[in-house]
């Protein structure tokens, strides 16, 4: 299934040197599987814990992927398992999204 990024994805930019990426997802507290897709359609997964405020911190190294300012955008979705099941709806800044588009910049 192809997502309409203009309608369903929230965009976030981070300094590529950051070791942890903090995200507010609006999900219930618990464990979820983060699915990361790169520009070549390669998928990486990471189990994450969402706190009672709906927040989590991702570590890009845990996805076993190296990000640079030239990596392009990564599509990040969340599911309840590592199976190819339904993406969860994310509640960010008062809106509903199916994914987050991550991109990285050079701070210097």
How would you describe the overall organization of this protein?
With 108 residues, the chain is mainly β. It has one helix at residues 5-8, and strands at residues 9-15, 21-24, 30-37, 43-50, 55-58, 74-79, 90-92, 95-97, 99-105. The strands form three sheets. The protein has a five-stranded mixed beta sheet with strand order 1-9-6-3-4. Strand 3 (30-37) and strand 4 form a beta hairpin. The longest helix is centred in the N-terminal third of the chain and has 4 residues, at 5-8. The model has no long low-confidence stretch (mean pLDDT 89).
Q: How many domains in all?
A: 1
Average pLDDT number: 89
Tell me the total number of β-strands.
9
The run of helices and strands is HEEEEEEEEE
The fraction of residues in strands falls at over 45%
Stretches with pLDDT under 50, minimum 5 residues: none
Distance between the termini: 37 Å
Overall SS class? mainly beta
Q: Order of strands side by side in the largest beta sheet?
A: 1-9-6-3-4
Shape type: globular
The CATH topology assignment is Immunoglobulin-like
Outline the biggest β-sheet. Answer: 5 strands, mixed
Q: What is the CATH first-level class name?
A: Mainly Beta
Number of alpha- plus pi-helical segments: 1
Helical amount = under 10%
> Which radius of gyration do the C-alpha atoms yield?
13 Å
CATH architecture: Sandwich
Describe this structure in a few short sentences.
4% of the residues lie in helices and 46% in strands.
What are the defining features of this structure?
1 helix; Immunoglobulin-like; five-stranded mixed β-sheet; mainly beta; 108 residues; two-stranded antiparallel ribbon
